[in-house]
Amino acid sequence: MTHITQHRTTFLVFYKFRALTHDEKEKSRKEWNELKNTLPQGIELIGEYSHAWGTEYNGFLLFQAETSDSFFDWWSEYKDSIRWYVDKTHTIVARRK
User: Fold this and answer.
1) What's this model's pTM, rounded to 2 decimal places?
2) DSSP the chain
């Protein structure tokens, strides 16, 4: 009997915010919460961290996706929507053995 295990891909996304006013911070927080609730099927936010000590980043996110393609298709659209308040990102992609 052959057992096939689907290997999901994990994405570690570091982010660095631009300098924001109080109103911009509130707007970005609202947009982020809306976006989290509309993730496409097959992409899951499994961790949200507000600090990344030892790096230049403000924090990082952990996503899992059924396929790398589904994440990358979504990511390019997502990144365009946050570009006004996120200055820089760095993504590490990993796949469980």
Assistant:
1) 0.84
2) --------EEEEEEEEEPP--HHHHHHHHHHHHHHHTTPPTTEEEEEEES--TTSSSSEEEEEEES-HHHHHHHHHHHHHHHTTTEEEEEEEEEE--
